[in-house]
Structures are given as C-alpha cells and as structure tokens.
Please model this.
Amino acid sequence: MARGKKADKITTLQTTAIVVCFMLAAGLLTLPRVATEAAKTPDAWISVILAGVASFLFGWVIVKLSSRFPESTFYQYVQQITGKFIGKGIGMLIVIYFVCIAAFEIRSVEEVTSFFLLEGTPAWAISAPFMWLSLYLCMGGVGSLGKICQLIFPVSAAIFLLICLLSLNIFELNNLRPVLSEGVMPVLRTLKTTILTLTGTESLLIILCRMEKPEKATKAIGLAIGIAVVFYTATLILCIGAFSMEGVLSRTWPFLDLARSFEVEYLLLERFESLLLTIWIMQIFATFSIAFYCASLGVSQILNSSYSKMLFILLPLIYLLSQIPKNLNELFSFGTVIGNVAFALFALLPLPLLLISYWRGARS
Model:
C-alpha cells in the first residue's frame, strides 16, 4: 500500500468511525420518508431498532469470517475458500457493489447541493473537487481514511445533536400516538427498508485485516451500529413528531426540511439547514471515499495490479455511472437496487463462506 505497513493500520476507534460514516450517508435525509411510506403508520422508528439488531448479527458473521484470515482482505481469502475462479468472480461482484455505492453518493451530492446550495452550478463542477479530494485521500490508504472519519464524526454528531435539541420546539408527541395501533405487521414490513439503510458492516470485510487489534472488531461494529441506530431513530421520531406522518410523506428530504423549519434568534446562526448540509456532505465524502478505496483495492488485488493505478482508472467510471439516472426518482430506484444487492451479498453470502471455510479448514 501507499505508505508502508505500519502507517496503514487503524485503531479500534478509527474502525468504529469508518463503519459509522459508511452507514450515515444519503439515508440520513431520506429515511423518514421511505420508512414511513413502507410502514404507513408512525411506528416506523421501531423497525430501525429491530434492523439494528439484525445488522449486528450480519456484522458478527462478517467479523467471524474475516477473523479467520486476519492478514487478508475478503478479495484474497475468498479465493482460498472457494477456489481462484469462483473467488475472483465473487470479488468482482463486491467491487461492482462498491463502485455503485460511490456513484450513488456522488450523484446524491450533486442533486442536493445544486438544489439547496449552488443552484445553476454544473453537475461536474460540484462533483469534480469532491472526487479529486477523495482520490488524494485514498492515495494514503486506509490509515488516512480512518483519521478523516475520526475527525468528521464528532463534528457531525455535535451539529446533529444541536439540530435535534432545537427541533424539540416544534415536536408534537401526539403525532407518534398511538404506538402499534395496527399491530406489529407495519413494523415488520418496514424492516427491509431500514435494514438496507443500516448496511455498512460489509466494509469490515476489507478493513479488518488493517486493524491494530482485530480481536476488538465485534466491539467496534456493536458501537458503530448503536450510534447509527440512535441517529436514524432520532431522525424518524423528530420528523414524524414535527410534520406528522402525512407531512413526512409529502417531503423529498424530510430531515433537511426539519432543520429549515425553525429559527433561533439568540444564536449566531438563525437557520440551520446550511450546517446540516455541511455535515451531510462530509458524511457523503467519507462514504464515497470508503467505497472508492474498497473498490480500487479489490480490483488491484484481483488483477494483481497497482492500487494507485486503479484509483485513477475507476474514478471516471464512477462519475459516468453516477450520470445514468435521469432524475431523482431514478436515483432513488438505483439506491433501492443497491440496497437489495447489498442484502443478497452481505446478509446471505458470508455465513455459507464461513461454514465452507470451517469445512475445508481454510484459514491464513
């Protein structure tokens, strides 16, 4: 890798920050609408908690699998488990998934930034600096990613908490009542949506081998999922409480509208949507960079080529892919497809691979 083995290690805290940043991306602005749409009741927030439990179980299997090969990434050890030909095929599927994630995030940034902040600015002018900065960051390897995520998350958490506290002024508890009025079926029906939003533990397939203390990986994902669940549950509860279920369904970006719906005269900033967009763009930058790193590392290890070269090759491909959706509806559909693929790849695939590795006695 770029700076030697010692510099390319990450601490448990940095691992937690990477997983959290990978989870908290575009879903932060859209989850209240899509979850409420699926549930058709105000109880959608309960499904986030249940989805957190399910995500932890999937993440635990991923940790167990990767822990059997503590010196290898998924792209390397999957070839030991299944054989080179099948292993490289599975590895390329994972690479395509990460490329699609990166494309989705960059297009989300373009859509939101051009609508709320830089109206009339060409899409390429928004995405180009974003992508080149990410390229520079990824050249430093996972160690640099860990440091930037460790820096971004506390700032994001502080601003998010401030917006949540101030939004309590327009919060109406009656909009969340009665709880479970239509039973548990709406909650269970929403689980698919919320589980897809809480994907992110798959990054450990690639970065666990870079941890200084890989035995603490389970603790890292437990903490990361717990933080993400708190963020998403608070987002859902506050949006439904402020706007009601019908109000949330009528908004494209409910949490952003929540930040725009109150003013505070005694603070330096009276309006908070710019602050929210700032932390959201930082989160998207982190998510994009992690996906970009995982995809580039995957291609370089599968094809035995230079990691740096793959960064430069994949960057324009990601941009071209990001421009395929013609509008917001197509972009959201693209995101749904990515979520479904993520469930198939990372909820259903690791357990059979773990069992096969035990059966064959494969480990590094």
User: Anything to note?
Assistant: Residues 84-116 form the longest helix (33 residues). The domain at 12-360 is CATH 1.20.1740.10 (Amino acid/polyamine transporter I).
